[in-house]
Amino acid sequence: xxxxxxxxxxxxxxxxxxxxxxxxxxxxxxxxxxxxxxxxxxxxxxxxxxxxxxxxxxxxxxxxxxxxxxxxxxxxxxxxxxxxxxxxxxxxxxxxxxxxxxxxxxxxxxxxxxxxxxxxxxxxxxxxxxxxxxxxxxxxxxxxxxxxxxxxxxxxxxxxxxxxxxxxxxxxxxxxxxxxxxxxxxxxxxxxxxxxxxxxxxxxxxxxxxxxxxxxxxxxxxxxxxxxxxxxxxxxxxxxxxxxxxxxxxxxxxxxxxxxxxxxxxxxxxxxxxxxxxxxxxxxxxxxxxxxxxxxxxxxxxxxxxxxxxxxxxxx
Length: 316
Known about the structure:
Layout: E1 2-6, H1 15-22, H2 29-32, E2 33-37, E3 42-44, E4 53-54, E5 58-59, E6 64-74, E7 79-87, E8 94-100, E9 112-117, E10 123-131, E11 135-144, H3 151-169, E12 176-182, E13 190-192, E14 204-208, E15 214-216, E16 224-226, E17 234-236, E18 254-260, H4 270-285, H5 296-305
Antiparallel strand pairs: 1-12, 2-11, 3-11, 4-10, 5-10, 6-9, 6-11, 7-8, 7-10, 12-18, 13-17, 14-15, 14-18, 16-17
Helix pairs in contact: 1-4, 3-4
């Protein structure tokens, strides 16, 4: 028996990607963008680090974003090094790859630089280092917002489309935690794990004897983990070992907690991501017109599109 414990915190496609798929637009350029300052325009004093001049974190999840470095005048010999950082929680930030702007000197000040943020984190900010003399500059994040009227609905549709694809393929698309309950130990020296893309982190195996006493098995001593990439992973007995002996508890005596799925949306095969977009588009455009959202013909199409990614393995 499989029980979902923790659903994925990200989806195979973003809100922006689905909006592009359904061509949702408010019709006005001004209504489709907004600007938020990270480092407020000012004259910044000398600071030989990236911890003094720290910009405000900005939520860019579901948006396309461009970061603007607007340079004023550098005092004589002054230089500015500015870069983009990213975060999942707006607390812990790390440098975003390719996020460094060209150093600003007196030779190229009073100019604008821009970088499109193409990372996958929810928050971004800018930080700057100023050397030799004070410098004037500021940073702004421009977000392509579009029509937000149906954002909540579209967000739910993305999750529904992902779940439909997971049902077709019998796999987990992105990192999620499951409980796998067994009534008995297998006769083979391994346990085949469902849903594909088995991860090695946060996996545990517990079993209860007839009195309800619970025992936790130890990795490498009692079992090994075989991930098998995108296929079904396995829990394998080490050489010479056997499954625990003793009478098992009568109800769900063996509990395996495991994580599975791709760890990033970009790692998911393009055919799967395309199917999620197409299903999401259909569910949105046909809302209220038919009960199931997808016709038999359309569902058969998605079955064929995803056939090569379906897991055919059988389990206990």
